[in-house]
Amino acid sequence: MFLRVKICGITNTGDALFAERSGADAIGVVISEESPRCISMEDAKEIFSALGPFTTTVIVTHTNSQDLLDEMAAVNPSAIQVSADVNRPEDYRGKMIRVAGADGKIREDCDAIIIDQSHGKGIPFDYEHAEKLMKSATKPVILAGGLNMSNVPAAISRLQPYAVDVCSGVEKSPRIKDPMKVLEFLKAAGKIPVVRKKEKISR
């Protein structure tokens, strides 16, 4: 299984580039006023333009405004992740990721589903709910909510998601990523090979 990792809640170019160089497949930014990690459209453009062509760029939003969603689409991210019941922007050619509701209901007009009731607050997901949803899902499933370097190996082993998504689990504080936590999370998720010290040979 080829697992993908998204580092989310990025607020500056330095953190984005470090995550990319360290092996992250996707970089997520948040554009929602209620989030402490909210950035502007201009900041999103700056961060995304600094990344390489093979790195997936994602705008995460909880907006109910179709007009605002259309503005986000104009930034041209690889994907837009939405939690509200909004429509795909008419001229947007990227992917749509929809957050699965607590009732498990998901609109069919999406390219992937994310299990995330935490929204960057570090609240762990419910394993039983995740398992039920994954059994019935017809689209790739992304796992998020309270993930960190300690619990992500078990989550991957048990649920076999398409991707995992981390935000607060790799932060020094809201808005600022911790480089060591980013590296440890990527190692724990299998994106960075674990280099083991050679055992001493007894003579």
Provide structural commentary.
- By secondary structure, the protein is an alpha/beta fold.
- It has helices at residues 13-22, 41-50, 66-74, 127-136, 152-159, 179-188, and strands at 4-7, 26-30, 56-61, 79-82, 95-99, 112-115, 141-144, 163-166, 171-173, 176-177.
- The strands form two sheets. The protein has an eight-stranded parallel barrel with strand order 1-2-3-4-5-6-7-8. A two-stranded antiparallel sheet has the order 9-10.
- Helix 1 (13-22) packs parallel to helix 6 (179-188).
- The model is unreliable at 199-203 (pLDDT under 50).
Please state the average pLDDT score. 90
Structural class: alpha/beta
The shape is globular
**Uncertain regions spanning at least 5 consecutive residues:** 199-203
Going across the major beta sheet, what is the strand order?
Answer: 1-2-3-4-5-6-7-8
Quaternary structure classification: single chain
Beta-strand percentage range: 15-25%
Number of helices: 6
Gyration radius from CA atoms, angstroms: 17 Å
**Based on DSSP secondary structure assignment, what is the total number of beta strands?**
10
Q: Main β-sheet: number of strands, strand sense, barrel status?
A: 8 strands, parallel, barrel
The secondary-structure element order is EHEHEHEEEHEHEEEH
What separation lies between the terminal Cα atoms? 41 Å
Overall helicity: 25-40%
Attribute tags:
8-stranded parallel barrel; globular; single chain; 203 residues; disordered C terminus; 10 strands; 6 helices; 20% strand; alpha/beta; two-stranded antiparallel ribbon
